[in-house]
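Practice problem 4.
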């Protein structure tokens, strides 16, 4: 989850500087998800001159990048598009900042009553084994969340 991080592109717009400026800041901690070009900066590592304005950025606590959410849960990205009328879309807290889409993973776990240490996957319920063998929670329609 992106707790204590800000979206670099959002911060650079607020500061009116290049989105690559963070590369020249001493001690800044920048992270990216696998196969993504979107950069997140740890708030505490941003130079103190800019840290006050970093607090005006969108709070990303509990969120993960939508691409990562789909990759690690096995959910098709089309479920995160409102116009596709997916029932799962309405169960998720989705945040869009510019071109970056984020999913509130913490809220998803909380809504399901799951511990954050569980690994989850989403697929059609008909592909799950019998209840004692596989733990699952029905989401909507024919979709379930499996966890272990």
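Answer key:
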């Amino acid at each position: 989850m992106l707790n204590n991080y800000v979206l670099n592109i959002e911060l650079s717009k607020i500061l009116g500087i290049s989105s690559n400026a963070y590369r020249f800041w001493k001690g800044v901690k920048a992270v990216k998800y696998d196969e993504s070009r979107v950069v997140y900066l740890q708030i505490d590592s941003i130079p103190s001159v800019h840290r006050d304005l970093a607090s005006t950025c969108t709070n990303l606590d509990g969120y993960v990048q939508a691409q990562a959410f789909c990759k690690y849960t096995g959910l098709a990205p089309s479920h995160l598009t409102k116009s596709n009328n997916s029932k799962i879309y309405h169960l998720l807290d989705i945040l869009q900042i510019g071109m970056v889409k984020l999913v509130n993973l913490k809220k998803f776990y909380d809504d399901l009553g799951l511990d954050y240490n569980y690994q989850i996957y989403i697929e059609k319920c008909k592909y799950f084994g019998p209840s004692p063998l596989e733990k699952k929670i029905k989401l909507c329609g024919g979709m379930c969340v499996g966890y272990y």
